[in-house]
Design goal:
It contains 14 helices and 36 strands. The termini are far apart. The strands form eight sheets. The protein has an eight-stranded mixed beta sheet with strand order 29-30-32-31-33-34-35-36, with helices on both faces. A four-stranded antiparallel beta sheet has the order 1-2-3-4, with no helix packed on it. A four-stranded antiparallel beta sheet has the order 5-6-7-8, with no helix packed on it. The chain is an alpha+beta fold and about 725 residues long. InterPro entries: 6-blade_b-propeller_TolB-like, AB_hydrolase_fold, Peptidase_S9_cat, WD40.
């Protein structure tokens, strides 16, 4: 009885601070948020490891912060920090006896594998590989560790250790003027000479490439996230004995990548995904297969492969009989569906489930698989019965499970919810009787005023149910009028909701600044099934605009909304949608578009996400039947119709959407004398608002607020 009363007191106190706190969420509170990730339970079920991501003050620039990720250990009663220091670590993997962990840590700019005994001994470095080592996976028998190594094309071409036979790729490098790859053969006798023979001139030009005086691009996908990447990179698999002084053994070879390596239950085989057709250039091979190889690297073979399909995330069952994996048609824009198969790849069947599944975890008896899937504004945990193929949802849509693991008697998980952005919990295997294990964010949240969203549903012109949420200003006062912010998600296949972690701070910040906020998951969003996700095909503008403006109009009916003070923002695809809306609708007093796409033909060359153009619009700008569609669906086509004061932002190193998109929009509006401002963030990439420089993230938030206040602030 005393325990029950204590639980009720604790619960009521949590609700009290969540609802009755008066302190505003500040822009700098983003630096206080601690995020739980990479949860892993020990084989004996008595403890768990997790990663905690924090923001720490930069030692040289007091206005800036550095990201840190370190390991924590919990026995389900208390938690303690295992790793410390300026160098971050990755997620840990357990030894079979639950006495040691392996993890990757940065050493002189390269990640290496470390082992740490949990009986009080010091961690020691297991690998010292010149290319680094990452993603350790301890074998079930506890003797070996599988890891991956990322190498460049020239690494493989020149390194006799990883390419002892000096093989050339089986696919064409597509070098103009050369019908074969023989020109790649290095003749060390030829000396670089700008005034010599054609062979010596070629050697001279190659030396310029080595010395970074030139970049020679022959590949299709040459744009990375922040810089051009003329060279393809490959993921190779290695294995090493789990003991000090051991030497790594290379398992996969050649100019091909192997991803998501995982051990079979008997530690004799390794499953991974790789390209289906080894004769295709990797940039052109969109299909991937499931492969299996022996633990010594021999006997590699494809066991699940099909033209037009990508298979990934192969996870073998503990009894060694089955595999679960994801499949996605190459024209499905990344929608993962579940398949089950025998361990040899035979008897492949699809499991009926209209969400994109991730993070498979088998129960020890191989009867069930747990997984997560973004859905209806949250990220629930689901449970698949292998025998019946029935799926049960175990957690709600109002929270997000970002990481989890299971043992025979419990599930341990990281959860995002409105009242707390990230904490660690444990519960029984039905996710009942949950107990909070961490308090990483409790102290700074204790007296904060938070706004809790109200969910509503709208039926659009296609008959689809569109979910949206309305948030009142924090410290709301009845009878007072407030501005309304429409905040839209990108993707376009992203999904927002109470269980989505990335926007927790931004939503709460604007509510604390006295804004009401509305956000929606319009047609094209993920989390509502394949048909809904693909319902914006050749319709990026009008259809999604109908959905988000319907949500805004409904929110604006509230007595507390000042309809003369409405503003709008969005990033990436939602930057596109922001520009589209203000060129077709003039209700908003100010708009802020971030890292957007505005002209779809230019986007083909400007961004590394260029495949969105043919995938969503059915073809390429030079095709007569596609060109008018791209023109119709480009916000830039309607730039002269924009009347709304407009702030445009882009990271200077953003190659996912590309800065020319923003510069075309800004320059055109400037020529016409419109109210427009353009902010470029030096060094910023497309991920600026999520994983970018912390000071720039603060700058971004303040610029949105300051710009809006110019037009809707109470004078």
């Amino acid at each position: 009885m005393k325990k029950t009363l204590l639980f009720l007191v604790l619960l009521l106190s949590q609700l009290s601070f969540a609802q009755k706190g008066k302190e505003k969420i500040l822009v700098t509170d983003m630096t206080k948020i601690k995020q739980v990730a990479n949860v892993s339970i020990a084989p004996d079920g008595k403890k768990a490891i997790y990663v905690l991501r924090t923001n720490e003050n930069n030692e040289t620039d007091k206005l800036d912060f550095d990201y840190r990720t370190h390991l924590w250990l919990t026995d389900f009663q208390t938690a303690k920090q295992l790793t410390r220091g300026a160098e971050s670590v990755g997620g840990a993997t357990w030894s079979a006896d639950s006495k040691q962990i392996a993890f990757a840590r940065n050493v002189k700019g390269k990640y290496q594998i470390f082992l740490m005994p949990l009986d009080g001994g010091e961690a020691f470095q297991l690998t010292d590989f010149k290319y680094g080592a990452n993603n350790p996976q301890w074998s079930p028998d506890g003797t070996k560790i599988l890891f991956s190594v990322n190498v460049t094309f020239s690494d493989i071409l020149k390194d006799s250790l990883i390419n002892p036979s000096k093989k050339l790729p089986s696919w064409s490098i597509e070098k103009a003027g050369f019908k074969s790859n023989d020109f790649l053969k290095i003749d060390k006798k030829v000396k670089a000479n700008p005034n010599g023979s054609i062979e010596e001139i070629r050697a001279y030009l190659e030396k310029d490439v080595e010395d970074k005086k030139a970049k020679v691009i022959t590949r299709l996908n040459f744009q990375g996230e922040s810089t051009t990447e003329p060279e393809i990179r490959f993921n190779l698999l290695f294995v090493i004995d789990a003991k000090e002084g051991a030497k790594p053994v290379q398992l996969t070879k050649g100019f091909w990548s192997y991803n998501g390596g995982s051990w079979s239950a008997d530690s004799k085989k390794i499953y991974a995904s790789s390209g289906r057709d080894s004769l295709q250039h990797p940039d052109r091979e969109l299909n991937s297969s499931i492969v299996v190889l022996n633990a010594d690297g021999s006997g590699i073979k494809q066991i699940i492969a099909e033209k037009g399909i990508s298979y990934n995330s192969a996870t073998p069952s503990p009894d060694g009989k089955l595999l679960i994996a994801t499949m996605s048609k190459t024209d499905w824009l990344g929608f993962n569906q579940i398949i089950l198969a025998n361990a040899d790849g035979s008897n492949k069947t699809m499991v009926t489930f209209d969400r994109a599944a991730n993070n498979f975890e088998w129960t020890d008896d191989s009867k069930f698989v747990y997984f997560t899937a973004s859905s209806n504004g949250g990220v629930p945990v689901y449970k698949l019965d292998i025998q019946t193929k029935k799926i049960e949802k175990l957690s709600d849509y109002d929270t997000g499970i970002s990481s989890f693991d299971i043992s025979k008697e419990r599930i341990v998980f990281a959860k995002t919810e409105v009242k707390n952005p990230s904490e660690l919990y444990t519960a029984d295997l039905l996710m009942k009787n949950a107990v909070k294990l961490s308090t990483h964010n409790d102290e700074w949240l204790q007296n904060k005023a938070l706004s809790f969203p109200e969910k509503r549903v709208y039926k659009n012109s296609k008959g689809q149910s569109v979910e949206y949420w309305i948030m009142k200003p924090a410290n709301f006062e009845a009878g007072k009028k407030y501005p309304l912010l429409l905040n839209m998600h990108g993707g376009p296949t992203a999904m927002w909701g109470p269980g989505e972690a990335s926007m927790w701070h931004e939503f709460q910040y604007f509510c604390s600044q006295g804004y009401g906020l509305v956000y929606a998951n319009p047609r094209g969003s993920g989390g509502y099934g394949k048909d809904f996700q693909f319902s914006n095909y050749q319709d990026w503008g009008n259809g999604p605009t109908e959905d988000v403006l319907a949500a805004t109009s409904d929110a604006a009916k509230a007595s507390w909304v000042d309809t003369s003070r409405q503003v709008i923002t969005g990033g990436s695809y939602a930057g596109y949608l922001t520009a589209w809306i203000i060129s077709h609708d003039h209700r908003f007093k100010a708009a802020f578009a971030q890292r957007g796409v505005y002209e779809l033909s230019t986007f083909m060359g400007e961004g590394n996400a260029w495949r969105l153009t043919p995938n969503y619009f059915g073809g390429y700008p030079w095709e007569n039947n596609i060109k008018p569609i791209l023109e119709r669906e480009s916000p830039y086509t309607y730039v002269d119709k924009i009347k709304t004061p407009f702030l445009i932002k882009h990271g200077e190193n953003d190659l996912r959407t590309g800065v020319i998109q923003s510069e075309m929009m800004y320059k055109s509006l400037k020529i016409m004398g419109k109210e427009v401002e353009y902010v470029r963030m030096p060094g910023g990439t497309h991920e600026l608002s999520r994983t970018g420089n912390v000071r720039q993230k603060i700058d971004r938030m303040l610029r949105i607020y300051e710009f809006f206040e110019r037009y809707i602030g109470l004078k």
